[in-house]
Amino acid sequence: MVDLTTRYMGLSLKNPIIIASSGLTGNVESIKKLEANGAGAVVLKSIFEEEIIMEYDHMMNKMDQFESDYEYFDYYDYKIKEENVSKYLQLIKDAKAAVSIPVIASINCVSSHEWTYFAKKIEEAGADAIELNAFILPSDPERSSAENEKVYFDIVNTIKKEVKIPVAMKMSYYFSNLAQMIKKLSETELKGIVLFNRFYSPDFDIEELKVISSHIFSTQSDQVMPLRWISIMAEKVSCDLAATTGIHKGEDVIKMLLAGAKAVQVASTIYQNGAEYIQTMLKEIEEWMERHNYLNIDQFRAKLSQAKNENGAHYERVQFMRYFGEKESTL
Ligand SMILES: Cc1cc2nc3c(=O)[nH]c(=O)nc-3n(C[C@H](O)[C@H](O)[C@H](O)COP(=O)(O)O)c2cc1C
User: Fold this and answer.
1) Ligand 1 pocket, residue 245 CB under 6 Å
2) Per-residue pLDDT for 192 more than 70?
3) Is the confidence at residue 27, as pLDDT, over 50?
């Protein structure tokens, strides 16, 4: 029998498969089913910064601004209800009472402002950790990258004044110096960084000539981004890394562990294949470990990270020149 346990952010996980923040983790019945099928931990569906602010009635005069900012965010099922905040705390309490795997709360945020005291309430409700889904789309040409980046550090510093439980940040790759941003964030009080979040992206209906939502679920090929960047950063960061986006099968989990991840977060494959599919993924990992004579994950974690690989250039190659140089391109 192989040992699938891993430690992520100081939490003990029975295996590295975490169910990512999504509708899958928005109610206790689903969470119980995910645990029963083998999930190592769950990240609860996110609560939004503006929901918290609204509940406490601190910034009612700014609601117009929020509404226009979030006009297209139906990806996140954006429904403001005043009772959402107390419901969220209840979800944490109920989930903690119902399952024994770690329950990580999630906050979707774009600033370090009035909402941050809410982290303390999340801690008091019993969450094992908090994941910050922090994202500013760098779409404003008048705003410098330094201004945007400062917000992420401000958020971490403010939250860490409120709570003692571990905090992770799920981030995007929209940074001008991604490696430095990941490294610097890892040197804050964050215990984990999750690479990379996947966002709602607008698409066009060319018959109706309107903007629509599509590509809600990832595909396996989307995993190339976390795979490259976890491989490059694994031995350079001061906190744990978790992988998310495009992890659909057991083999994908193995790749992320070989790159150096402590855990992975999955959503799309569970939406598409059901909670039972966690068992299939775990079986694939176990069989692979047995085939390779690995007894535990630490024996192969980060074995294919850039730092441990003789040819580090492989990880930084971005052009197809050699591929097309060597192969005939006739159709
Ligand atoms: C339907 C859906 C809802 C999601 N809701 C959230 C959310 O509330 N908060 C969040 O941080 N990420 C959310 N995500 C992103 C997932 O947590 C995950 O990071 C992303 O989908 C990449 O994993 P995947 O490729 O396995 O889907 C959502 C994803 C999907 C597909």
Assistant:
1) yes
2) yes
3) yes
